[in-house]
Amino acid sequence: MSLVTFLYIILSAILDIIANLLLNISDGFKKVAYGIAAIILVFIAFFFLSLAIEEIPLAIAYTLWGAIGIIGTTLGANYFFKQRLKPIGWVGIIMVIIAIAMLEMGQ
Fold this sequence. Notes:
Layout: H1 3-25, H2 32-52, H3 58-81, H4 87-105
Helix pairs in contact: 1-2, 1-3, 3-4
């Protein structure tokens, strides 16, 4: 995987994380501007993800994107909204990281 492709995935995931956090701030789209911003960021995130899958298989790109998004959203929700995971939640995140590593080794 080239550096540019990896950066596309990272950028896509960061945009997705921001979209998720904005969606939380939108309070179920009661704050419409935040909800619309979240939707726009998701479209842009998928655009960058589409650039990544020109070089690597969709399964690899989407899995990396999803894992980064899960971890980033969890950390962002913890930092900005004081939403805490129970220990079993952290076990799940560790399992996601292990699964990503295994997927990469099998490529």
